[in-house]
Amino acid sequence: GEVLTNLGLSSQFQTLRETLLAQGLCGRCGDVGDHFTHACPQGSDLGVRAAKSMRKKRGTMRQLEEALDNFDTASSTELKAFLRAHGLSSLAPVLEGRQIYT
After folding, report:
1. pLDDT 10s digits, 41-78
2. CB of 92 within 8 A of CB of 64?
3. For a Cys staple, 88 with which of 19, 22, 59, 83, CB 3.0–4.6 Å?
């Protein structure tokens, strides 16, 4: 809370929490906005689907990293550093979509 307040991101985080997170945050596969752990399509089938999911995750992580690298570099250097330092790089596309760069 304090970090978000200091960065002026409280209202944006509240919106994210009420929309995307309310639709799902899976502790098994890491998907956000699609399903919760109890409804994870990976369920007990850890075979082929798990391997496909890992490949998909690697692709998604590459996309997130690319989005972060392309993230309005003129004004977002400190924000990118903060997101990386706190393991929040996945928020970069959401912030960029809302035109939040600082």
Report:
1. 887 555 545 555 666 666 666 766 666 565 444 446 77
2. yes
3. 83
**Amino acid letter at 35?**
H
Q: Which residues make Cβ contacts (< 8 Å) with residue 99, sequence separation at least 6?
A: none
Q: How many CA atoms lie within 13 A of 45 on its CB side?
A: 9
Residue 96's nearest CA partner among 62, 57, 83, 21 is 83
DSSP letter (8 states) at residue 32: B
Question: What tokens does 81 get?
Answer: 């550093």
Using alpha carbons only, give the angle 5, 7, 36 rounded to the nearest 5 degrees.
70
Cα 62–63–64 angle (5° rounding)? 90
Query: The pTM is what?
Result: 0.35
